[in-house]
Design brief:
The protein is mainly α. The protein has helices at 56-87, 95-121, 128-132; strands at residues 3-7, 12-15, 31-36. A 3-stranded antiparallel β-sheet has the order 2-1-3, with no helix packed on it. Strand 1 (3-7) and strand 2 (12-15) form a beta hairpin.
Length: 133
Amino acid sequence: MPRAGWCRECGAWIWVDTADGCPSGHSPECVSDRYEAQPVEPASVHDAVGDGEPPRFLGRQARWLVWGAVGSVVATAVTVPAAMAFWRPYGLAGAAVVEPVVWLVAEIALGLWLAGRMLIEHPVTPSVADEVA
């Protein structure tokens, strides 16, 4: 059964060679979190291509994107009048428009930053299909 592990010198998941080291020549001490990869059938290049529909995971992401956009617009539409009513006695009704927009932009920026960090900190682990290809 093929074995994989994390090479701290390469900074990536790698296939472990017969000596439990990195194929790039790094010693076995540099490789941690070794595991036995489960054999699977390699994916075909033609799987889910040309049928006109995205795979089920991408469809789910698209639905979340739409709901997130709708929720953001509704939340902003509700927040602006409420904020204007709160700030009007102080003569700062104009600030009521800026405040929700600033929060919305900050939330979007935070979401993008977190998504980028997840990709950096959790790289894709190799699969048997990668080794076959």
